[in-house]
Amino acid sequence: MCLTGQYIHFQVHKCALSSNNSMVCFHCNSYCKLDSGWVRSVRPQKENLFLHVNDGSSLQSLQVVASSELNHRLLTFGSAVEISGSLVTSPSRKQEVELQADQIDVVGECNPVDFPFKIKKKHGLEYIRQFPHLRCRTNAFSSLLRIRSEATAAIQQYFKEKGFIQVHTPVLTSNDCEGAGELFQVEVSSKNQDEEGHQHFFSVPAYLTVSGQLHLEVMAGAFPGVYTFGPTFRAENSQSRRHLAEFYMVEAEISFTQSLEDLMKVMEDLFRSTTEHLLDQCPEDVALYHKHVITYTEAINILNSSSKKFAFKTDWGCDLQTEHEKYLVKHCGDFPLFVTDYPYALKPFYARDNQDQPLHTAAAVDLLVPGVGEMCGGSLREDRLDLLKTRLAQAGLDEAYGWYLDLRRFGSVPHGGFGMGFERYLQCVLGVDNIKDVIPFPRYSRSCLL
Ligand code: 4AD
């Protein structure tokens, strides 16, 4: 077990100490050996040298006490150490236990002059973003990475408990699911081109996926619920605070579904259970939940009756921009907000036509959240073959999507699904302003560091 893990374990289980650098827990019988971590602070005093050492397993650091005679020149902020000693009850009230070190070996030095992070200084996220190779050593980013990992586990657990099948949808694909042309085309190296320089790896152009939805819809023809959770790519030329060229999306498809309410229930449940898990596992980080539902038409009315001047148009039929989404969330009490029934023309070919409504809308829903705007987008899928055929033909896509029409021909079921941007979810829960600060290696227009 790790060093801080052991410390926490000790606190929780009130383990007995032994004298030989180890401890045995009489509750769970685990046997732990003290070992290694990174120095977070160094305080030389008259008789003793006090260090705080952290191993990345939590925000907590273990206090290490060594003799002041120890040469501490190399024990600087950020250096990597291996320690042996005994875990004892601490005389101070600040911690229950501390490690009395017999020996401290510096296994990796860290020159404090060159190291971009300084002891006891709180660096802004924008500053630490400049060091993608070192930012995991800061409290803020190591905390984010633990939360990402917990949220990933919670999402998998949610779908497993609900009986969804996880499908590994492909990263390389020949479709542009969203039809927006925001595709990264995959080129083969010159070695794999023919004499005229043509690519011949796949006989059709291949792209990095913009969404696994269409592949999930294939599987929705055989399973009640399917999901995928993987990297997604969009060649959007945007420097905004909520767009990445590579992001992780959780997508689900639910068969035998005919109502947006059913979809919203899963979207809300997923959001709620993942957040509850985070609150439980990482209590210091999060707090929220409530919801509202309005239609797109109501949203437009709210925007048009506001005295606020928006940069983008708010006529019926215009897409909601981030400024509109953020305003709507604020207007509705700063809680998560569902917006339903968007204009048909704004939605991709697969969205179900709400034929019975006076204004031409699609059965589509977005979940907007505070500080971020759109976090999830979903729709019921058009399951009526004739309507789908017409729409694909109008878009000139009928030849390419013959296979998609087959899904409606053979044992089709009413279904719907949604996608949740994982980074936007983390932005929302953690209140992080810029999406680049919730992903280990951000890729965006004009930036592909490391
Ligand atoms: O609304 P979008 O484009 O929907 C789809 O891709 C559907 N095919 C999903 C489905 O129904 N299976 O994207 C879904 C979510 C958005 O709500 C947003 O959270 C996130 O993906 N997203 C992005 N996140 C970061 N950077 C970008 N460039 C993003 N584009 C979309």
Automatic annotation (TrEMBL):
One Pfam family matching this protein: tRNA-synt_2
Entry's Gene Ontology BP terms: asparaginyl-tRNA aminoacylation
Gene Ontology terms for molecular function: asparagine-tRNA ligase activity; ATP binding; nucleic acid binding
EC numbers on record: 6.1.1.22
Keyword match Flavoprotein: no
Matching PROSITE patterns: AA_TRNA_LIGASE_II
Keywords: Aminoacyl-tRNA synthetase, ATP-binding, Ligase, Nucleotide-binding, Protein biosynthesis
UniProt-listed PANTHER family: ASPARAGINE--TRNA LIGASE, MITOCHONDRIAL-RELATED (PTHR22594:SF34), ASPARTYL/LYSYL-TRNA SYNTHETASE (PTHR22594)
Protein's name in the database: asparagine--tRNA ligase
Organism per entry: Salmo trutta (Brown trout)
Gene: NARS2
